[in-house]
Design brief:
heterodimer, A: 6-stranded mixed sheet, 4-stranded antiparallel sheet, B: mainly beta, 7-stranded mixed sheet, 11 strands, globular
Chain lengths: 112, 114
Amino acid sequence: GDSVTQMEGPVTLSEEAFLTINCTYTATGYPSLFWYVQYPGEGLQLLLKATKADDKGSNKGFEATYRKETTSFHLEKGSVQVSDSAVYFCALSPRAASKLTFGTGTRLQVTL
Amino acid sequence: GAGVSQSPSNKVTEKGKDVELRCDPISGHTALYWYRQSLGQGLEFLIYFQGNSAPDKSGLPSDRFSAERTGGSVSTLTIQRTQQEDSAVYLCASSSTSGRVEQYFGPGTRLTVT
């Protein structure tokens, strides 16, 4: 079945540091890929998505590129802020209107 | 516009009691999903509705769990004879099926079984 593997957390960074959170997936066909974020005390929010190979999703300074050859969708940000502290979830969906399969989540803590 | 709403936001119940959790999807979204978020299991899919029918119930953990959707809108997740392992945050999401794949999540219902 489909699965998503993301790096264990927590990840602790100083403000303005470079962020990478690794995500790899196993799926048949060409799934859509997502990063969701959960800020403390809040619900899951879509951060970015990519629906086909080589697509780059971007939002709020975060980027991720759909790499079919390495089955990866790593999340990056050039300069993190304290306000980016949250739990980040990588997810996939095999097609529209089907379930999301999530990774275990990576907690990011950014300090001054 | 209004997002996905869920009620109640918190529910404490005694072991063995039945509970009902409600989800109001984004207006016009025909697809509706239930997920569960717990410390030990992460985010797990429970059930998916397309309109009022449920083509994928594969994530329901036992026959104590059931869900329905009426009028292609509101959905209710029912847990009968609750157990302590049912304690979790139950999340509802909705999506449009007009070619867009992203799902929009509600704030969740935190269920605590004592």
